[in-house]
């Protein structure tokens, strides 16, 4: 009598592995989307904190990121406006009187699920990217 696995046993093991993968993969992808959303919000909050701190010290908002990076000590260590980070593209409209910053996912549902907008005074609005992707193009 030879020892080994039968075809039925191997097929059962393969079916169990496929079932576990079918359960785990969507959860992992969802976790990545949630992580990108959280990272975009954290980046926006860091930028808003830098803008508000600059305004508190100087009486006006900076008109460019250079003012934030070139201050001593710097309010911001890296450029975010016009850049893509964590699957989100950041757009900034800065003036001495106000600011508007928008973080839009590069690919709705793949790199992020929400579009975040922050206006002067740290006022946040959030839209589903599917509803706002047509208006931001």
Describe this structure as you would to a colleague.
It is built from three helices and five strands, in the order H-H-E-E-E-E-E-H. The radius of gyration is 23 Å and the shape is elongated. The chain has one domain. Strand 4 and strand 5 form a beta hairpin. The protein has helices spanning 7-58, 65-69, 129-136; strands spanning 84-85, 88-94, 99-105, 114-119, 123-128. With 137 residues, the chain is of the alpha+beta class. It has a five-stranded antiparallel beta sheet with strand order 1-2-3-4-5. The termini are far apart.
Question: What value does the average pLDDT take?
Answer: 89
- Helix fraction bin: 40-55%
Looking across the biggest beta sheet, what order are the strands in? 1-2-3-4-5
Q: SSE order in H/E notation?
A: HHEEEEEH
Query: What is the number of independent domains?
Result: 1
Give the DSSP E fraction (strand runs of 2 or more residues).
15-25%
Number of strands: 5
Structural class: alpha+beta
* Oligomeric state of the chains present here: single chain
- Count of helical regions: 3
Structural Rg? 23 Å
Runs with pLDDT <50, length 5+? 131-137
Q: What's the main sheet like?
A: 5 strands, antiparallel
């Amino acid at each position: 009598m030879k020892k080994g696995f039968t075809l039925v046993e191997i097929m059962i093991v393969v079916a169990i592995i496929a079932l576990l993968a079918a359960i785990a993969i969507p959860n992992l992808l969802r976790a990545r989307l949630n992580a990108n959303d959280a990272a975009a919000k954290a980046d926006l909050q860091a930028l808003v904190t830098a803008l508000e701190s600059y305004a508190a010290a100087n009486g006006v908002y900076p008109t460019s990121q250079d003012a934030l990076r070139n201050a001593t000590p710097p309010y911001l260590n890296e450029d975010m406006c016009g850049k893509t980070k964590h699957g989100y593209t950041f757009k900034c409209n800065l003036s001495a009187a106000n600011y508007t910053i928008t973080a839009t996912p590069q690919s709705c549902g793949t790199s992020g699920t929400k579009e975040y907008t922050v206006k002067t005074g740290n006022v946040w609005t959030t839209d589903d990217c599917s509803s706002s992707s047509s208006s931001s193009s």
